Amino acid sequence: MTKNSTSPTRAAWTGMVPVDDTALAVTDTGGPGTPVVYLNGQFATQGYWRRVIADLGPGWRHITYDERARGRKSQTSADYSFEIAVRDVDAVLAARGVERALVVGWSYGAFVGAHWASRNPNRALGAVLVDGAFPYDWIDEATEQRIRKLFKRLSPFMTLMRPTGLTPRMNAEQMADSNIELGRISREGELGPVLDAIAVPTRYVVASGTSFGSKGDEQEQIRTSLDEVTARNPRIRVSAKVPSNHGAILKKDFHAIAEAVREAAAQGGEPASEPGQPPAA
């Protein structure tokens, strides 16, 4: 953990943060420790982070929240775009009085974290990207059609599950649009420059198991795109490759994720170096 507090000491708080046409359910453990903001999977909730948070312990200031229409409390919105997801990070931090933070994102949240860290080199203390933000061209017209059919087929089941908070309060078209947009953002020509521009210590934790719905070694091929990323940007390193699959990584390999947070924080805490200067690794 970085030695210097980056925000004023605050009491623990749980409540709603109004943003645009919606409000987000936020939990802030408070305290003087390094602020860590956790960014969820595409349709996941803040509860997924509980094991990582417990492993890191109370010496950190943990900030979690549910994205628009996710969980039981975050409200619906007219906008579920990726750009809005990145902007909502700023809204949550501003509401909690945090200027600088370390971002930790899983899956969809890894993309959000990468973009936020890339755009905010003097506010990001570091980034930990968990099995996501791999620059790879996997989306095409046929894939988009399959995605739309899948969400349409799953819609009745997801509607039944909404009261539990385990599925988002978004319709099938909105969920498909979000997934397709993520595919486009994942393209090497789109995500590569974002990762190249990251100027803060960044650690990846990568799964190795095969997830439901993947074909052959498709996921492993996607993950190999990190080789070129780490070769181009020395600030970015793979902290660990763990045995669990994409869906189970927060549950089974939370120790590795917590250790990556410690690594990134130990290297961070200083403003990003100017272009052409040796980076903090």
Protein architecture, described:
- This protein has 281 residues and is of the alpha/beta class.
- The protein is 39% helix and 17% strand.
- It is built from ten helices and eight strands.
- The chain has an eight-stranded mixed sheet, with helices on both faces.
- Strand 5, helix 3 (108-119) and strand 6 (124-130) form a beta-alpha-beta unit.
- Helix 1 (50-56) crosses helix 10 (254-267).
- The longest helix has 21 residues, at 141-161.
- It is globular, with a radius of gyration of 18 Å.
- The two termini are 16 Å apart.
Q: Layout of SSEs?
A:
Elements: E1 13-19, E2 22-28, E3 35-39, H1 50-56, E4 61-65, H2 82-95, E5 101-106, H3 108-119, E6 124-130, H4 141-161, H5 172-186, H6 188-196, E7 202-206, H7 218-223, H8 226-232, E8 236-241, H9 249-252, H10 254-267
